[in-house]
Design goal:
Blueprint: H1 8-17, H2 19-29, H3 32-147, H4 153-166, E1 170-178, E2 188-197, E3 200-206, H5 214-229, E4 235-239, H6 247-254, E5 257-259
Parallel strand pairs: 3-4, 4-5
Antiparallel strand pairs: 1-2, 2-3
Amino acid sequence: MGFTVKDFPDLIRLLREHEEWREQLRMLILTEELLRLPLEFRAFRDEIFESFRRETEARFQQLAEAQRRTEERVGRLEEAVAALAEAQRRTEERVEQLAEAQRRTEEQLRKLGEMVAALAEAQRRTEERLDRMEQRILRRLNAFGARWGLRSEAAWREGMRAVLQDIGFQVERWTASDPEGEVFGYPATVELDVVIRNGVVMVIELKASAGRETLPTLERKVRFYEKHTGRSVQRRILVTPWYEPGVAEQARWMGWELYGEPEEIIGE
């Protein structure tokens, strides 16, 4: 019995009722390649999924390892930052200590400056006092000499020694033999009046008069004294009521202080 178009619904109904028919019809309509296609697709899908799974797992492991290394690096960076912060703290403490030390140093320097200024002022007042004392001494010496009329240099010298020692000066009459004649040109005894004050060595010579040969002779006596005592004479003073013209210029050139009559005595 043949089928017509109007019998197609019945065919559909019969195929639904008979599964084996549907299978046979499928085998007739679909080729073997088409029938294998779902299986191959599932196999391909499974393979893709497995490959994706393995790749995903590998990628995840790589990311996990990268994350671990990152965390280690972050840990080291945190330690480094902490060390830098500690170093910065110590540096700031050190800077504060240095600033405090600098402040104390400046304060000490200020106090030292004040002390130096005070000492300088005290030294200035002391020098002024000594200058005034020296002027009074020289005036007294000259007055002493005038009082006795300079008849005896030895007597005046003894008076000078008494006056100076009385106010705290060290006075000595230095005497030494000069067998080679270094001072006078022939063997003689060299005598020199030496006054010492605070380590300053002064030679004070008293003469009834002074000529042009007086100072050269006195200078040779001073050098003879320095040679034999090892002392250095800081001041050379000649006191005389009368001296020849030109002796004052000679004294200035040779470094001697020359004092004449009382009204001419001017302390330096």
